[in-house]
Amino acid sequence: MTIELEPSAQTDGFHLVVDALKLNGIDTIYGVVGIPITDLARLAQAEGIRYIGFRHEQSAGNAAAIAGYLTQKPGICLTVSAPGFLNGMVALANATTNCFPMILISGSSDRAIVDLQQGDYEELDQLNAARPYAKAAFRVNRPEDIGVGIARAIRAAVSGRPGGVYLDLPADVLRSAIDAKTGALSLVRAVDPAPRQLPSPESVGRALDLLASAKRPLVILGKGAAYAQADEAVRAFVEASGAPFVPMSMAKGLLSDNHPQSAAAARSFVLGQADVVVLIGARLNWLLGHGKAPQWSPTARFIQLDISPTEIDSNRAIAAPVVGDISSSLAALLAGVEHAQISPRAEWLDAIEAHKRHNAERMAEHLDAKPDPMDFYSALRAVRDVLADNPDVYVVNEGANTLDFGRNIIDMHTPRKRLDSGTWGVMGIGMGYAIGAAVTSGGRVVAIEGDSAFGFSGMEIETICRYKLPVVIIVFNNGGVYRGDDVNRGQGTDTAPTVLMKSAHYEKLIEAFGGTGHYVTDAVGLTGALAEALASGKPALINCVIDPATGTESGHLKKLNPQSALAHAT
Ligand code: ADP
Ligand code: MG
After folding, report:
1. For a disulfide at 253, which of 110, 325, 345, 412, Cβ 3.0-4.6 Å?
2. Closest of 204, 140, 515, 190 to residue 333, by C-alpha
3. Does ligand 1 come within 6 angstroms of the Cβ of 233?
4. What's the pLDDT tens digit per position in 138-155?
5. In ligand 1, which atom is closest to the CA atom of 248?
6. 162 alpha carbon to ligand 2 midpoint, in Å?
7. pTM for the full model?
Protein backbone atom coordinates (compact mmCIF):
# COMPACT_ATOMS: atom_id res chain seq x y z
CA MET A 1 0.00 0.00 0.00
CA THR A 2 1.29 3.44 -0.83
CA ILE A 3 0.49 6.48 1.26
CA GLU A 4 -0.17 9.60 -0.78
CA LEU A 5 1.71 12.47 0.82
CA GLU A 6 -0.12 15.67 0.00
CA PRO A 7 2.38 18.48 -0.42
CA SER A 8 1.31 20.63 2.47
CA ALA A 9 1.27 24.42 2.38
CA GLN A 10 4.19 26.18 4.01
CA THR A 11 4.42 29.25 6.15
CA ASP A 12 7.42 31.10 7.54
CA GLY A 13 8.53 33.15 10.54
CA PHE A 14 7.44 36.45 9.01
CA HIS A 15 3.87 35.19 8.53
CA LEU A 16 3.75 33.59 11.96
CA VAL A 17 4.76 36.85 13.67
CA VAL A 18 2.08 38.81 11.83
CA ASP A 19 -0.54 36.09 12.46
CA ALA A 20 0.34 35.98 16.17
CA LEU A 21 0.11 39.77 16.55
CA LYS A 22 -3.24 39.88 14.76
CA LEU A 23 -4.60 37.00 16.81
CA ASN A 24 -3.83 39.11 19.90
CA GLY A 25 -5.56 42.22 18.64
CA ILE A 26 -2.43 44.20 17.77
CA ASP A 27 -3.44 46.71 15.12
CA THR A 28 -0.42 49.04 14.89
CA ILE A 29 3.36 48.70 14.69
CA TYR A 30 5.75 51.63 15.10
CA GLY A 31 9.19 51.14 13.64
CA VAL A 32 12.13 51.78 11.36
CA VAL A 33 12.76 49.13 8.68
CA GLY A 34 15.98 47.58 7.42
CA ILE A 35 17.73 44.20 7.55
CA PRO A 36 16.22 41.78 8.59
CA ILE A 37 12.71 43.08 9.31
CA THR A 38 11.71 45.03 6.20
CA ASP A 39 9.55 42.21 4.90
CA LEU A 40 7.93 41.85 8.31
CA ALA A 41 6.71 45.45 8.10
CA ARG A 42 5.57 44.97 4.49
CA LEU A 43 3.71 41.83 5.35
CA ALA A 44 2.10 43.37 8.46
CA GLN A 45 0.81 46.23 6.32
CA ALA A 46 -0.44 43.84 3.65
CA GLU A 47 -2.27 41.88 6.33
CA GLY A 48 -4.07 44.91 7.77
CA ILE A 49 -1.81 45.96 10.64
CA ARG A 50 -1.05 49.68 10.45
CA TYR A 51 2.68 50.28 10.13
CA ILE A 52 3.94 53.74 11.12
CA GLY A 53 7.47 54.32 9.85
CA PHE A 54 9.75 56.68 11.79
CA ARG A 55 13.10 58.38 11.22
CA HIS A 56 14.68 57.14 14.46
CA GLU A 57 13.93 54.08 16.58
CA GLN A 58 13.83 56.03 19.83
CA SER A 59 10.82 57.97 18.62
CA ALA A 60 9.16 54.82 17.27
CA GLY A 61 9.67 53.24 20.69
CA ASN A 62 8.30 56.28 22.49
CA ALA A 63 5.23 56.24 20.27
CA ALA A 64 4.71 52.55 21.02
CA ALA A 65 5.14 53.12 24.76
CA ILE A 66 2.65 55.96 24.96
CA ALA A 67 0.20 53.99 22.82
CA GLY A 68 0.51 51.26 25.44
CA TYR A 69 -0.17 53.74 28.24
CA LEU A 70 -3.25 55.10 26.49
CA THR A 71 -4.78 51.80 25.40
CA GLN A 72 -3.62 49.20 27.98
CA LYS A 73 -2.50 47.09 25.01
CA PRO A 74 1.25 46.67 24.50
CA GLY A 75 2.61 49.16 21.98
CA ILE A 76 4.82 47.40 19.44
CA CYS A 77 8.11 48.86 18.23
CA LEU A 78 9.98 47.11 15.41
CA THR A 79 13.68 47.71 14.79
CA VAL A 80 16.61 46.30 12.87
CA SER A 81 19.53 44.64 14.62
CA ALA A 82 22.34 46.10 16.78
CA PRO A 83 22.36 49.89 16.22
CA GLY A 84 18.63 50.14 15.51
CA PHE A 85 17.95 47.92 18.50
CA LEU A 86 20.12 50.13 20.73
CA ASN A 87 18.38 53.26 19.49
CA GLY A 88 15.11 51.68 20.59
CA MET A 89 16.50 50.69 23.98
CA VAL A 90 16.18 54.18 25.50
CA ALA A 91 12.48 54.05 24.77
CA LEU A 92 12.21 50.51 26.15
CA ALA A 93 13.99 51.47 29.36
CA ASN A 94 11.84 54.57 29.64
CA ALA A 95 8.70 52.46 29.19
CA THR A 96 9.83 50.09 31.95
CA THR A 97 10.63 52.98 34.28
CA ASN A 98 7.26 54.61 33.65
CA CYS A 99 5.27 51.34 33.83
CA PHE A 100 4.08 51.58 30.21
CA PRO A 101 3.35 48.31 28.39
CA MET A 102 5.50 48.05 25.29
CA ILE A 103 7.21 45.33 23.28
CA LEU A 104 10.42 46.06 21.39
CA ILE A 105 10.76 43.48 18.61
CA SER A 106 14.17 43.50 16.97
CA GLY A 107 15.62 41.37 14.25
CA SER A 108 19.05 39.97 15.11
CA SER A 109 22.05 38.53 13.34
CA ASP A 110 23.32 34.93 13.11
CA ARG A 111 23.49 33.48 16.62
CA ALA A 112 26.41 31.17 15.88
CA ILE A 113 28.55 34.09 14.70
CA VAL A 114 27.34 36.55 17.35
CA ASP A 115 28.01 34.12 20.19
CA LEU A 116 31.57 33.42 19.03
CA GLN A 117 32.09 37.15 18.32
CA GLN A 118 33.24 36.39 14.79
CA GLY A 119 32.24 39.77 13.45
CA ASP A 120 28.81 39.58 11.82
CA TYR A 121 26.90 42.40 10.15
CA GLU A 122 25.32 44.33 13.05
CA GLU A 123 26.68 41.88 15.58
CA LEU A 124 25.37 42.29 19.11
CA ASP A 125 24.17 40.04 21.88
CA GLN A 126 20.87 41.91 21.95
CA LEU A 127 19.04 39.65 24.39
CA ASN A 128 21.58 40.18 27.14
CA ALA A 129 21.94 43.86 26.33
CA ALA A 130 18.19 44.33 26.76
CA ARG A 131 17.71 42.37 29.97
CA PRO A 132 18.64 44.98 32.58
CA TYR A 133 16.38 47.59 31.01
CA ALA A 134 13.33 45.45 30.34
CA LYS A 135 10.66 43.96 32.57
CA ALA A 136 11.26 40.73 30.64
CA ALA A 137 13.33 39.65 27.64
CA PHE A 138 12.82 36.65 25.38
CA ARG A 139 14.38 35.17 22.25
CA VAL A 140 12.56 32.89 19.84
CA ASN A 141 14.93 30.32 18.36
CA ARG A 142 12.49 28.23 16.32
CA PRO A 143 9.60 29.37 14.11
CA GLU A 144 7.21 27.02 15.92
CA ASP A 145 7.90 29.01 19.13
CA ILE A 146 6.84 32.39 17.71
CA GLY A 147 3.27 32.05 18.98
CA VAL A 148 4.39 31.28 22.52
CA GLY A 149 7.06 33.99 22.39
CA ILE A 150 4.58 36.69 21.43
CA ALA A 151 2.02 35.54 23.99
CA ARG A 152 4.66 35.62 26.73
CA ALA A 153 5.81 39.06 25.65
CA ILE A 154 2.24 40.39 25.74
CA ARG A 155 1.57 38.94 29.20
CA ALA A 156 4.83 40.26 30.58
CA ALA A 157 4.11 43.74 29.20
CA VAL A 158 0.56 44.21 30.51
CA SER A 159 0.16 42.01 33.59
CA GLY A 160 0.79 43.34 37.09
CA ARG A 161 2.94 46.45 36.88
CA PRO A 162 3.20 47.09 33.14
CA GLY A 163 6.58 47.56 31.51
CA GLY A 164 8.81 47.23 28.50
CA VAL A 165 9.52 43.77 27.08
CA TYR A 166 12.19 42.80 24.59
CA LEU A 167 11.54 40.11 21.97
CA ASP A 168 14.52 38.97 19.91
CA LEU A 169 13.82 37.50 16.49
CA PRO A 170 16.91 36.16 14.70
CA ALA A 171 16.88 36.62 10.94
CA ASP A 172 17.01 32.88 10.23
CA VAL A 173 13.95 32.24 12.41
CA LEU A 174 12.01 34.83 10.45
CA ARG A 175 13.07 33.21 7.18
CA SER A 176 12.50 29.59 8.23
CA ALA A 177 9.67 27.78 6.53
CA ILE A 178 7.46 25.31 8.39
CA ASP A 179 4.29 23.41 7.65
CA ALA A 180 1.40 25.87 7.67
CA LYS A 181 -0.92 23.68 9.77
CA THR A 182 1.77 23.14 12.38
CA GLY A 183 2.38 26.86 12.33
CA ALA A 184 -1.29 27.73 12.79
CA LEU A 185 -1.58 25.31 15.69
CA SER A 186 1.44 26.89 17.38
CA LEU A 187 -0.20 30.31 17.70
CA VAL A 188 -1.42 31.41 21.13
CA ARG A 189 -4.13 33.94 21.94
CA ALA A 190 -3.40 35.30 25.39
CA VAL A 191 -6.61 35.01 27.41
CA ASP A 192 -7.06 37.67 30.11
CA PRO A 193 -3.46 38.88 29.86
CA ALA A 194 -3.86 41.52 32.61
CA PRO A 195 -6.03 39.74 35.17
CA ARG A 196 -7.66 41.72 37.95
CA GLN A 197 -5.87 41.48 41.25
CA LEU A 198 -8.18 41.82 44.21
CA PRO A 199 -6.82 43.35 47.40
CA SER A 200 -7.20 41.34 50.58
CA PRO A 201 -10.18 42.37 52.75
CA GLU A 202 -7.83 42.89 55.73
CA SER A 203 -5.75 45.39 53.79
CA VAL A 204 -8.88 47.31 52.84
CA GLY A 205 -10.15 47.37 56.43
CA ARG A 206 -6.76 48.55 57.69
CA ALA A 207 -6.69 51.35 55.14
CA LEU A 208 -10.21 52.50 55.99
CA ASP A 209 -9.45 52.52 59.71
CA LEU A 210 -6.38 54.63 59.14
CA LEU A 211 -8.25 57.00 56.86
CA ALA A 212 -11.02 57.41 59.44
CA SER A 213 -8.43 58.53 61.99
CA ALA A 214 -7.16 61.32 59.73
CA LYS A 215 -7.46 64.94 60.69
CA ARG A 216 -5.55 66.20 57.66
CA PRO A 217 -6.00 63.58 54.92
CA LEU A 218 -4.52 63.93 51.45
CA VAL A 219 -4.91 61.87 48.27
CA ILE A 220 -2.08 61.71 45.71
CA LEU A 221 -3.15 60.55 42.25
CA GLY A 222 -0.40 59.05 40.09
CA LYS A 223 -0.20 57.92 36.51
CA GLY A 224 -0.81 54.33 37.64
CA ALA A 225 -4.33 55.51 38.51
CA ALA A 226 -4.63 57.19 35.13
CA TYR A 227 -3.38 54.04 33.38
CA ALA A 228 -5.95 51.89 35.19
CA GLN A 229 -8.83 53.76 33.53
CA ALA A 230 -10.77 53.64 36.80
CA ASP A 231 -11.82 57.25 36.32
CA GLU A 232 -15.28 57.06 37.91
CA ALA A 233 -14.01 55.09 40.90
CA VAL A 234 -11.23 57.65 41.45
CA ARG A 235 -13.76 60.47 41.41
CA ALA A 236 -16.19 58.65 43.69
CA PHE A 237 -13.46 57.81 46.19
CA VAL A 238 -11.98 61.31 46.32
CA GLU A 239 -15.41 62.90 46.66
CA ALA A 240 -16.62 60.41 49.29
CA SER A 241 -13.48 60.95 51.34
CA GLY A 242 -13.77 64.73 51.21
CA ALA A 243 -9.97 64.83 51.17
CA PRO A 244 -7.93 67.28 49.12
CA PHE A 245 -6.04 65.70 46.24
CA VAL A 246 -2.84 66.47 44.36
CA PRO A 247 -2.30 64.92 40.93
CA MET A 248 1.12 63.85 39.72
CA SER A 249 1.80 65.42 36.35
CA MET A 250 0.40 62.69 34.10
CA ALA A 251 -2.55 62.17 36.46
CA LYS A 252 -3.65 65.76 35.87
CA GLY A 253 -7.15 65.72 34.40
CA LEU A 254 -8.15 62.46 36.09
CA LEU A 255 -10.21 64.90 38.11
CA SER A 256 -10.35 68.37 36.59
CA ASP A 257 -7.71 70.81 37.79
CA ASN A 258 -10.72 73.03 38.58
CA HIS A 259 -12.19 70.45 40.96
CA PRO A 260 -12.90 72.14 44.30
CA GLN A 261 -10.91 69.44 46.16
CA SER A 262 -7.77 69.98 44.06
CA ALA A 263 -4.94 71.17 46.29
CA ALA A 264 -2.41 71.39 43.44
CA ALA A 265 -2.03 75.13 44.03
CA ALA A 266 -1.17 74.43 47.68
CA ARG A 267 1.08 71.45 46.97
CA SER A 268 3.98 72.17 49.31
CA PHE A 269 1.65 73.06 52.13
CA VAL A 270 -0.48 69.90 51.92
CA LEU A 271 2.50 67.58 51.47
CA GLY A 272 4.14 69.04 54.55
CA GLN A 273 1.07 69.04 56.76
CA ALA A 274 -0.94 65.92 55.80
CA ASP A 275 -1.27 63.32 58.58
CA VAL A 276 -2.73 60.49 56.49
CA VAL A 277 -1.82 60.19 52.82
CA VAL A 278 -3.50 57.93 50.28
CA LEU A 279 -1.20 57.15 47.34
CA ILE A 280 -3.18 55.89 44.37
CA GLY A 281 -0.86 54.55 41.66
CA ALA A 282 1.98 56.92 42.57
CA ARG A 283 5.46 56.00 43.76
CA LEU A 284 7.30 57.77 46.57
CA ASN A 285 10.28 58.42 44.29
CA TRP A 286 12.22 61.65 43.69
CA LEU A 287 9.13 63.30 42.27
CA LEU A 288 7.59 63.06 45.75
CA GLY A 289 10.73 63.79 47.76
CA HIS A 290 10.98 60.04 48.58
CA GLY A 291 8.17 60.55 51.08
CA LYS A 292 10.59 62.15 53.54
CA ALA A 293 11.28 65.43 55.29
CA PRO A 294 11.50 68.26 54.45
CA GLN A 295 8.63 67.77 51.97
CA TRP A 296 6.65 65.43 54.23
CA SER A 297 5.92 65.24 57.91
CA PRO A 298 7.96 62.44 59.52
CA THR A 299 4.86 61.37 61.44
CA ALA A 300 2.53 61.20 58.43
CA ARG A 301 1.11 57.74 57.84
CA PHE A 302 0.61 56.34 54.37
CA ILE A 303 -1.97 54.18 52.63
CA GLN A 304 -0.62 52.96 49.29
CA LEU A 305 -2.70 51.45 46.48
CA ASP A 306 -0.40 49.69 44.05
CA ILE A 307 -0.40 46.55 41.95
CA SER A 308 3.22 45.80 42.77
CA PRO A 309 3.75 44.35 46.28
CA THR A 310 7.44 45.24 46.29
CA GLU A 311 6.71 48.93 45.77
CA ILE A 312 5.46 49.07 49.36
CA ASP A 313 8.01 50.41 51.91
CA SER A 314 10.40 51.25 49.08
CA ASN A 315 11.13 54.72 50.48
CA ARG A 316 9.42 54.96 53.83
CA ALA A 317 7.15 52.81 55.96
CA ILE A 318 3.68 52.29 54.56
CA ALA A 319 1.17 51.76 57.37
CA ALA A 320 -1.61 50.41 55.17
CA PRO A 321 -0.60 48.81 51.88
CA VAL A 322 -3.47 47.87 49.56
CA VAL A 323 -1.98 45.60 46.92
CA GLY A 324 -4.25 45.05 43.96
CA ASP A 325 -5.30 46.67 40.74
CA ILE A 326 -6.57 50.22 41.19
CA SER A 327 -10.11 49.46 39.98
CA SER A 328 -10.57 46.55 42.35
CA SER A 329 -8.88 48.32 45.26
CA LEU A 330 -10.95 51.46 44.86
CA ALA A 331 -14.14 49.43 44.52
CA ALA A 332 -13.32 47.67 47.80
CA LEU A 333 -12.48 50.93 49.56
CA LEU A 334 -15.61 52.59 48.23
CA ALA A 335 -17.78 49.81 49.60
CA GLY A 336 -16.55 50.66 53.11
CA VAL A 337 -15.91 54.37 52.85
CA GLU A 338 -19.41 55.44 53.92
CA HIS A 339 -19.13 53.58 57.23
CA ALA A 340 -15.60 54.77 57.84
CA GLN A 341 -16.80 58.28 58.73
CA ILE A 342 -13.93 60.11 57.20
CA SER A 343 -14.10 63.72 58.20
CA PRO A 344 -11.24 66.05 57.39
CA ARG A 345 -11.09 68.87 59.92
CA ALA A 346 -12.59 72.17 58.79
CA GLU A 347 -9.38 73.98 59.80
CA TRP A 348 -7.44 71.79 57.36
CA LEU A 349 -9.72 72.58 54.45
CA ASP A 350 -9.80 76.27 55.34
CA ALA A 351 -6.01 76.49 55.55
CA ILE A 352 -5.72 74.83 52.14
CA GLU A 353 -8.18 77.31 50.66
CA ALA A 354 -6.14 80.19 52.05
CA HIS A 355 -2.91 78.80 50.56
CA LYS A 356 -4.59 78.18 47.23
CA ARG A 357 -5.89 81.74 47.12
CA HIS A 358 -2.55 83.23 48.04
CA ASN A 359 -0.62 81.18 45.48
CA ALA A 360 -3.21 81.80 42.77
CA GLU A 361 -2.87 85.54 43.31
CA ARG A 362 0.91 85.35 43.03
CA MET A 363 0.62 83.24 39.87
CA ALA A 364 -1.92 85.65 38.38
CA GLU A 365 0.53 88.56 38.74
CA HIS A 366 3.07 86.69 36.58
CA LEU A 367 0.46 85.49 34.11
CA ASP A 368 -1.08 88.93 33.67
CA ALA A 369 2.25 90.71 33.08
CA LYS A 370 2.95 91.48 29.45
CA PRO A 371 6.74 91.39 29.13
CA ASP A 372 8.39 92.03 25.78
CA PRO A 373 9.89 89.65 24.75
CA MET A 374 7.57 87.04 26.23
CA ASP A 375 8.62 84.92 29.20
CA PHE A 376 7.41 81.41 30.07
CA TYR A 377 4.42 82.75 31.98
CA SER A 378 3.05 85.02 29.30
CA ALA A 379 3.57 82.49 26.50
CA LEU A 380 2.04 79.63 28.48
CA ARG A 381 -0.87 81.80 29.50
CA ALA A 382 -1.71 82.28 25.82
CA VAL A 383 -1.42 78.52 25.24
CA ARG A 384 -3.53 77.80 28.32
CA ASP A 385 -6.33 80.05 27.14
CA VAL A 386 -6.50 78.48 23.67
CA LEU A 387 -6.38 74.96 25.13
CA ALA A 388 -9.19 75.79 27.56
CA ASP A 389 -11.44 76.08 24.49
CA ASN A 390 -10.14 72.76 23.14
CA PRO A 391 -10.31 70.26 26.04
CA ASP A 392 -10.13 67.26 23.68
CA VAL A 393 -6.51 68.07 22.79
CA TYR A 394 -3.64 65.86 24.02
CA VAL A 395 -0.83 67.87 25.58
CA VAL A 396 2.72 66.58 25.21
CA ASN A 397 5.24 68.53 27.27
CA GLU A 398 9.02 68.32 27.66
CA GLY A 399 11.93 70.59 28.42
CA ALA A 400 13.26 71.96 31.69
CA ASN A 401 11.52 75.26 32.37
CA THR A 402 9.02 74.55 29.58
CA LEU A 403 8.06 71.37 31.43
CA ASP A 404 7.99 72.84 34.94
CA PHE A 405 6.01 75.93 34.00
CA GLY A 406 3.81 73.97 31.59
CA ARG A 407 2.82 71.51 34.29
CA ASN A 408 1.79 74.32 36.62
CA ILE A 409 0.10 76.62 34.14
CA ILE A 410 -1.71 74.34 31.68
CA ASP A 411 -4.83 72.99 33.39
CA MET A 412 -6.14 69.58 32.38
CA HIS A 413 -9.79 68.58 32.52
CA THR A 414 -9.96 65.06 31.11
CA PRO A 415 -7.98 61.91 31.97
CA ARG A 416 -4.80 60.76 30.19
CA LYS A 417 -4.48 63.89 28.07
CA ARG A 418 -1.19 65.09 29.54
CA LEU A 419 1.87 63.14 28.38
CA ASP A 420 5.25 64.32 29.58
CA SER A 421 8.82 63.52 30.56
CA GLY A 422 7.53 61.33 33.39
CA THR A 423 9.47 59.30 35.93
CA TRP A 424 12.93 59.80 34.43
CA GLY A 425 12.49 63.44 33.47
CA VAL A 426 13.68 62.28 30.04
CA MET A 427 14.14 64.54 27.02
CA GLY A 428 13.35 63.25 23.54
CA ILE A 429 9.86 61.87 24.05
CA GLY A 430 8.13 64.80 22.35
CA MET A 431 7.49 63.78 18.77
CA GLY A 432 7.19 60.06 19.55
CA TYR A 433 4.51 60.67 22.20
CA ALA A 434 2.73 63.16 19.93
CA ILE A 435 2.62 60.66 17.07
CA GLY A 436 1.60 57.77 19.32
CA ALA A 437 -1.23 59.83 20.83
CA ALA A 438 -2.46 61.07 17.45
CA VAL A 439 -2.33 57.61 15.87
CA THR A 440 -4.09 55.75 18.68
CA SER A 441 -6.76 58.38 19.32
CA GLY A 442 -7.25 59.99 15.91
CA GLY A 443 -7.34 63.19 17.97
CA ARG A 444 -5.41 66.45 18.03
CA VAL A 445 -2.15 66.97 19.88
CA VAL A 446 -0.25 70.05 21.00
CA ALA A 447 3.40 69.40 21.86
CA ILE A 448 4.82 72.13 24.12
CA GLU A 449 8.56 71.80 23.65
CA GLY A 450 11.66 73.49 24.95
CA ASP A 451 13.94 74.39 22.03
CA SER A 452 16.58 72.00 23.31
CA ALA A 453 14.09 69.20 24.02
CA PHE A 454 12.58 69.51 20.55
CA GLY A 455 15.96 68.86 18.98
CA PHE A 456 16.11 65.29 20.27
CA SER A 457 13.21 64.09 18.13
CA GLY A 458 12.69 67.02 15.74
CA MET A 459 13.25 65.03 12.53
CA GLU A 460 9.99 63.22 13.21
CA ILE A 461 8.11 66.25 11.89
CA GLU A 462 8.60 64.53 8.54
CA THR A 463 6.73 61.54 9.99
CA ILE A 464 4.00 63.84 11.31
CA CYS A 465 3.60 65.47 7.89
CA ARG A 466 3.80 62.20 5.96
CA TYR A 467 0.92 60.71 7.96
CA LYS A 468 -0.88 64.10 8.00
CA LEU A 469 -1.32 63.94 11.77
CA PRO A 470 -3.13 66.78 13.57
CA VAL A 471 -0.09 67.68 15.65
CA VAL A 472 0.86 71.26 16.52
CA ILE A 473 4.35 71.76 17.91
CA ILE A 474 5.16 74.89 19.89
CA VAL A 475 8.90 75.43 20.28
CA PHE A 476 9.64 77.67 23.25
CA ASN A 477 12.66 79.33 21.73
CA ASN A 478 14.87 81.03 24.27
CA GLY A 479 17.98 79.97 22.37
CA GLY A 480 19.36 77.55 24.89
CA VAL A 481 19.23 74.72 27.37
CA TYR A 482 17.53 76.31 30.41
CA ARG A 483 18.18 79.77 28.97
CA GLY A 484 20.03 81.30 26.07
CA ASP A 485 22.18 84.04 27.53
CA ASP A 486 25.16 82.26 29.05
CA VAL A 487 28.70 83.16 27.99
CA ASN A 488 31.85 81.22 27.11
CA ARG A 489 34.11 81.40 30.15
CA GLY A 490 37.20 80.51 28.16
CA GLN A 491 38.89 81.51 24.91
CA GLY A 492 37.48 81.63 21.42
CA THR A 493 34.10 82.21 19.89
CA ASP A 494 32.37 78.93 20.73
CA THR A 495 29.01 79.30 22.43
CA ALA A 496 28.56 78.45 26.11
CA PRO A 497 27.59 74.80 26.76
CA THR A 498 23.96 75.73 27.33
CA VAL A 499 23.58 78.05 24.35
CA LEU A 500 21.78 77.15 21.10
CA MET A 501 21.38 79.20 17.96
CA LYS A 502 19.55 82.39 18.87
CA SER A 503 18.05 83.10 15.48
CA ALA A 504 16.93 79.55 14.71
CA HIS A 505 13.85 79.48 12.46
CA TYR A 506 12.37 76.17 13.55
CA GLU A 507 9.14 76.96 11.70
CA LYS A 508 10.94 76.57 8.38
CA LEU A 509 11.72 72.93 9.15
CA ILE A 510 8.10 71.88 8.93
CA GLU A 511 7.57 73.90 5.77
CA ALA A 512 10.12 71.64 4.10
CA PHE A 513 7.64 68.80 4.53
CA GLY A 514 4.47 70.66 3.59
CA GLY A 515 3.37 71.63 7.11
CA THR A 516 2.56 75.14 8.23
CA GLY A 517 5.15 77.22 10.05
CA HIS A 518 4.38 80.16 12.33
CA TYR A 519 6.87 82.61 13.80
CA VAL A 520 5.51 84.52 16.80
CA THR A 521 7.05 87.02 19.17
CA ASP A 522 4.08 88.11 21.26
CA ALA A 523 1.07 86.63 23.02
CA VAL A 524 -1.42 87.88 20.45
CA GLY A 525 0.54 86.23 17.68
CA LEU A 526 0.85 82.99 19.65
CA THR A 527 -2.87 82.89 20.45
CA GLY A 528 -3.79 83.44 16.80
CA ALA A 529 -1.29 80.92 15.45
CA LEU A 530 -2.29 78.19 17.90
CA ALA A 531 -6.03 78.70 17.35
CA GLU A 532 -5.53 78.64 13.58
CA ALA A 533 -3.27 75.59 13.66
CA LEU A 534 -5.68 73.64 15.88
CA ALA A 535 -8.67 74.59 13.72
CA SER A 536 -6.86 73.39 10.59
CA GLY A 537 -6.28 69.91 12.03
CA LYS A 538 -3.03 69.81 10.05
CA PRO A 539 0.64 69.58 11.03
CA ALA A 540 2.01 72.93 12.18
CA LEU A 541 5.01 74.24 14.08
CA ILE A 542 4.95 77.51 15.99
CA ASN A 543 8.36 79.01 16.68
CA CYS A 544 7.55 80.94 19.84
CA VAL A 545 10.35 83.39 20.56
CA ILE A 546 10.80 84.13 24.25
CA ASP A 547 13.36 86.06 26.24
CA PRO A 548 16.80 84.32 26.23
CA ALA A 549 17.19 85.54 29.81
CA THR A 550 14.02 83.75 30.98
CA GLY A 551 14.40 80.35 32.57
CA THR A 552 16.40 78.99 35.46
CA GLU A 553 19.33 76.58 35.46
CA SER A 554 17.97 73.00 35.69
CA GLY A 555 14.38 74.28 35.86
CA HIS A 556 12.92 73.35 39.23
CA LEU A 557 15.69 70.82 39.90
CA LYS A 558 18.32 73.20 41.18
CA LYS A 559 19.22 70.99 44.09
CA LEU A 560 20.26 68.23 41.66
CA ASN A 561 22.80 70.54 40.01
CA PRO A 562 25.19 71.81 42.70
CA GLN A 563 27.51 73.49 40.15
CA SER A 564 24.81 75.92 39.17
CA ALA A 565 26.52 78.72 41.12
CA LEU A 566 28.79 79.02 38.06
CA ALA A 567 25.77 79.68 35.91
CA HIS A 568 25.00 83.25 36.84
CA ALA A 569 27.44 85.12 34.67
CA THR A 570 24.96 87.40 33.02
P1 ADP B 1 3.58 59.04 39.11
O2 ADP B 1 4.87 59.34 38.41
O3 ADP B 1 2.40 59.66 38.46
O4 ADP B 1 3.66 59.26 40.57
P5 ADP B 1 4.41 56.35 39.07
O6 ADP B 1 4.73 55.89 37.70
O7 ADP B 1 5.52 56.75 39.96
O8 ADP B 1 3.32 57.49 38.95
O9 ADP B 1 3.62 55.22 39.83
C10 ADP B 1 2.69 54.43 39.18
C11 ADP B 1 2.42 53.26 40.08
O12 ADP B 1 1.19 52.71 39.65
C13 ADP B 1 3.47 52.17 39.98
O14 ADP B 1 3.97 51.87 41.26
C15 ADP B 1 2.71 50.98 39.40
O16 ADP B 1 3.08 49.75 40.01
C17 ADP B 1 1.29 51.32 39.72
N18 ADP B 1 0.32 50.79 38.77
C19 ADP B 1 0.39 50.79 37.44
N20 ADP B 1 -0.71 50.26 36.90
C21 ADP B 1 -1.51 49.92 37.92
C22 ADP B 1 -2.79 49.33 38.04
N23 ADP B 1 -3.51 48.99 36.97
N24 ADP B 1 -3.28 49.13 39.27
C25 ADP B 1 -2.57 49.47 40.36
N26 ADP B 1 -1.37 50.03 40.32
C27 ADP B 1 -0.84 50.26 39.13
MG1 MG C 1 15.37 76.59 25.93
Report:
1. 412
2. 204
3. no
4. 999 999 999 999 999 999
5. 3
6. 33
7. 0.96
